[in-house]
Design goal:
Layout: H1 3-14, H2 21-37, E1 51-52, H3 62-68, E2 77-79, E3 82-84, H4 94-102, H5 117-123, E4 134-135, H6 138-151, H7 154-167
Parallel strand pairs: 1-4
Antiparallel strand pairs: 2-3
Helix pairs in contact: 1-2, 4-6
Length: 171
């Protein structure tokens, strides 16, 4: 049985019943593509290492970001306890966040730190995933975002910031 095809088949059969289908489909397609490329790894599930708090001991929780001043959600998260800002609202590039998260508990065996999504999909190997927990380092995450910011053209940055500037009445 091809797990990635069955995942997409299940989604196609059930997507009308899923309240979060608009955000799920791209994720499932991306996940399926990675799974298709991992034919040498036995099909099934894998345990990934815990993501640990940047300070102290224990696993990272959704509340740690608000306490320590960094986002832990990709998008703004609203709950009964309040609002937690996400990476998008803090100005992080999606590529930077994916790159940072991919290197938590995994290494391709080289010193390379910057990967495109295509490179990650090509080089990712479950055999290279560490068993020990990985410390979440918000400063390293900022470093990745800074790198991707420097790679952007002035035109793409102007286009990205135009809605925010217009909202604040600056332009």
């Amino acid at each position: 049985m091809d797990f990635s095809n069955s995942l997409l088949d299940w989604y196609q059969d059930n997507k009308r019943d899923l309240p979060w289908r608009n955000t799920t489909e791209p994720y499932l397609i991306w996940l399926s593509e990675i799974m298709l490329q991992q034919t040498r790894v036995a099909q099934g599930f894998a345990h990934l290492p815990l993501i640990l708090k940047p300070i102290g001991n224990g696993k990272l929780s959704k509340r740690d970001g608000d306490k320590m001043g960094f986002p832990v959600f990709p998008l703004e998260w609203k709950s009964e306890e309040g609002v937690s800002s996400g990476y998008r609202e803090k100005g992080f590039f999606p590529e930077a966040v994916v790159n940072f998260l991919a290197l938590l508990g995994w290494n391709d065996g080289t010193d390379q730190e910057i990967f495109s999504l295509e490179e990650l999909a090509q080089k990712f190997d479950l055999n290279r995933v560490h068993k020990a927990g990985a410390k979440f380092d918000p400063e390293k995450n900022k470093w990745f975002n800074h790198h991707y910011l420097q790679q952007q053209s002035n035109e793409s940055l102007a286009e990205a910031f135009a809605p925010t500037l217009a909202e604040k009445g600056i332009c």
